[in-house]
Amino acid sequence: MKTEDFSSCCASTTFTKAMAMVSLFSSLEYAISVARDIWFHKVNVRCWLEAISGHSCFNQYLDTANESIMQGSMYEKKFGYIFMIYAFGKSSKDILAELKMRFTNKHAIELDIASHEEIKFIELPITEILSEKSAQTINKGDGEIVNDSLDVAKTDLEDNLDDISSVGIDISM
Predict the structure, then answer these.
(1) Looking at the whole model, is its pTM more than 0.70?
(2) Per-residue pLDDT for 15 more than 60?
């Protein structure tokens, strides 16, 4: 997969490049695990902020009440980025209550919470991309069963696993 494939997942170019570099995923669960590892252990705070800045304002989830807009502006002024919340299944009232509660947080705590909310936004398109790629692969297939590359690897009984030479079958989606 290419960097562009992951650009719909996250606005951080560092994250998308890292995902593209390791994009031979054996399963969706593995892809999500890799994404979480990259997000929480391999990219820095600037990457988190770059990703967060790629979102449209959270006010689209809130009623247009003056209180919501005022609270959102105060939040952005205090923390330097928009309020991040994965709003699926939450009412405007719930989101506003969460905003008010998190507004009292210290910067480091709030950035940690925002990064955890952001990974939820990242996981959804990864799921969609890999599901789409899987469907394309299945639809292109002719029903032929392909041997695992280790089934036809050149080995003898005295060799160890480090000496196995693969036949070079590309298993990427």
Answers:
(1) no
(2) yes
